[in-house]
Amino acid sequence: MVKVEKPDEFIDEEGKRVDGRDLNELRPVKIEANVLNRADGSCYIELGDNKIYAAVYGPREVHPRHLQEPDRAIVRYKYSMAPFSVSDRKRPGPGRRSKEISKVSEEALESAIFLEKYPKSVIDVFVEIVESAAGTRTTSLTAASVACADAGIPMRDLIASCASGKIDEEIVLDLNEPEDNHGDADVPVAMMPRTEDITLLQMDGDLTAEEIDEAIDLAKEGCKQLYEEQKNALKSKYGGK
Known about the structure:
- The chain has a 5-stranded mixed sheet.
- Helix 1 (96-110) packs across helix 2 (136-150) and helix 2 runs parallel beside helix 4 (209-238).
- The mean pLDDT is 93.
- Helix content is 27%, strand content 29%.
- The protein has a single domain, classed as 2-Layer Sandwich (Ribosomal Protein S5, domain 2), CATH 3.30.230.
- It is of the alpha+beta class.
- This is Exosome complex component Rrp41.
């Protein structure tokens, strides 16, 4: 097992983090739309060392039929980590963490979809983490939203998602693996950037009320940056403004 060691200091005298980023800087990001031929919509994303695929199938008929909603579609979101995605090989199959992330991500994503347009239908969303390096729940949501748009599903807006956190008494954007493992707090956020409606907000760690506000504001700025990358990925595939 390869452990991520805690650095002597997370922020140096010049205000740089262990990976050389500024406090408010995202890790390098790459987003591609329509990467899987057999899915109705798909996306591949890299954020730092995270590598994640998202695939969307539907809207299609719900099976078994007793799960149908007569006036809207349902969203089924499955978050999965490949056994080789982490240094300590993960046991195959969904664990408690994967189920919890799937549930909150499903709720965050369906807030943006016009579900009433597809009664008695289901939209299946699958995300597969092939390499994990902190922030997979938020990065997966960012990819899943692009995959939904790629599938042609009507949406109020894309969902962009990232996290902020606290290290060395400072609020920073987009925790990397050492910061995530050994930092003081983690605040995942998802939002519809045009309206700034938040669809996911969680916190792990201890923050003051003022720090929570600062962390949310910083995460929202990160979401807006990712939103531009999401739009660029779709424009690159399909053109348009």
